[in-house]
Amino acid sequence: MQRISDICKEAGCWLVIDNTYEYFMYDDRKHVCIEANHIVNIFSFSKAYGMMGWRVGYIAYPSEVEGLAAQLLKVQDNIPICASIISQRLALYSMEMGPEWVTNQVKDLVKNREVLQEALSPLGEGAVKGGEGAIYLWAKLPDKYMDDFKVVHWLAKRHGIVLIPGSSSGCPGYVRIAFGGLIEKDCRVAAERLRKGLEELVNSGMVS
């Protein structure tokens, strides 16, 4: 991240960092937040504290940069307008409680991650990326299946498991798998469907 920051600074560019999943770190990794006069850091209570849909967060920016605050307020006025009172109260309560609640919840996601990583094993060694932070895994499909939308549709229809096509995020030939928001029991059911689907995909293709 520091290298990216240095490149942006040299080029005279702003660096906007999304710290949405700052507490979602695994394997003893630590989140690091860097600051400089060309960096804007974005944080989310909605994601970090399980308040999806409440749309509340905050921005940390270099106050010494003249005129930046006014420009950020323009963004605020044209996108979310304002957070609701109940959202703001929940955010305040979250700050008072601290991140301990979140980190305890994150511990429960470790098993989900492991279960899904195993389910993705039919794709072969090195096919799975991510999992060091946040709640997502990226998996590369076999080279002959670059149409990830088609694979996702087939997995949903034939095996009852829904993934996100990588093309929706600019990565054709990949799929994205979320391991958050599931209790371990449900995650194991989903993982078994996924494993069977991928085994069939690799060995027999997208049979009807």
Automatic annotation (TrEMBL):
Record flagged with keyword Transferase: yes
Gene source species: Solanum stoloniferum
Cofactor(s) listed: pyridoxal 5'-phosphate
Descriptive protein name: Aminotransferase class I/classII large domain-containing protein
Family: Belongs to the class-I pyridoxal-phosphate-dependent aminotransferase family.
Keyword annotations from UniProtKB, A to Z: Aminotransferase, Pyridoxal phosphate, Transferase
PROSITE patterns: AA_TRANSFER_CLASS_1 (PS00105)
Lineage: Eukaryota, Viridiplantae, Streptophyta, Embryophyta, Tracheophyta
Highest taxon of the lineage: Eukaryota
